[in-house]
Amino acid sequence: MIELKDVWKVYPNNVKAINGMTLKIEKGEFVYIVGPSGAGKSTFIRLLYREEKATKGDVIIDTTKLNAIKERHVPKLRRRIGVIFQDFKLLPTLTVFENVAFALEVIEEPSTSIKRRVMEVLDIVKLKGKAKFLPDELSGGEQQRVAIARAIVNRPEVLIADEPTGNLDPDTAWGIMDILDDISHRGTTIIMATHNKSIVNTLKRRVIAIESGRVVRDELRGNYGYEV
Ligand code: ADP
């Protein structure tokens, strides 16, 4: 479970990005975060994996207060939270297999179990056949699927996606949604910031709308609600 209790985020340049946000997301939910540019969506997401620290208030994952985590324990937290981005962020000199294994290897697992787990997640994202390819030999949709595999390889409780379909054509975007849907059905909580109106209005989920750093709408099976 994820909980924000009266969270505020003021950047060093005095921009007030999150202004008193309180909300709960239950285990296994799939939530869209929508809102205009500059609303605070990315900041909200960065607070969830401790890329940013709240200026005031609590961000809580299960019983862990993220503000209280020491810097040296942040990597451990990150293994409980998978993250994907609009621009994939794969390591260009590593193969698909290595990009995914890299996320596991930091825990120093024996290599046979690394191999098994990496192939398991490459199967989930339908890329088993491309394990030896380099990122630039893949399409954008395939690269995003590698990023998803890497994000879920440690079996995180939560998968956070910041505009995961932002760089993809509509058909490819739907393919990514099929995979996120599958991961959601396996019990992972998914939080996805998006501008993709047709996805939000078709694949109905809880919608949390943010404007000026505040929640202005929170609906189960909501709509995108903005013109694009
Ligand atoms: P969104 O993702 O909805 O576009 P952001 O969270 O990126 O919104 O931005 C919210 C506000 O915070 C904006 O005014 C933006 O300019 C500002 N902002 C975002 N990141 C930083 C940062 N690292 N330093 C200072 N201001 C920032």
Descriptive report:
The relative contact order is 0.19. This protein has helices at 41-48, 74-78, 96-105, 111-124, 140-152, 170-185, 197-202; strands at 2-10, 16-25, 30-34, 56-61, 64-65, 81-85, 158-162, 189-193, 206-211, 214-219. The strands form two sheets. Strands 6-7-8-3-9-10 form a six-stranded mixed beta sheet, with helices on both faces. Strands 2-1-4-5 form a four-stranded antiparallel beta sheet, with helices on one face. The model has no long low-confidence stretch (mean pLDDT 95). The protein is of the alpha/beta class and 228 residues long. It has two domains: 1-80 and 157-168 and 178-227, P-loop containing nucleotide triphosphate hydrolases (Rossmann fold, 3-Layer(aba) Sandwich), CATH 3.40.50.300; 88-155, no CATH class. The protein is built from seven helices and ten strands. Helix 4 crosses helix 5 (140-152). The structure holds adenosine-5'-diphosphate. Adenosine-5'-diphosphate (ADP) binds at residues 11, 13, 15, 17, 35, 37-43. InterPro entries: AAA+_ATPase, ABC_transporter-like_ATP-bd, ABC_transporter-like_CS, ABC_transpr_LolD-like, Cell_div_FtsE, P-loop_NTPase. One of its GO terms (molecular function) is transmembrane transporter activity. Pfam families: ABC_tran (PF00005). It is found in: Cell membrane. It is a peripheral membrane protein.
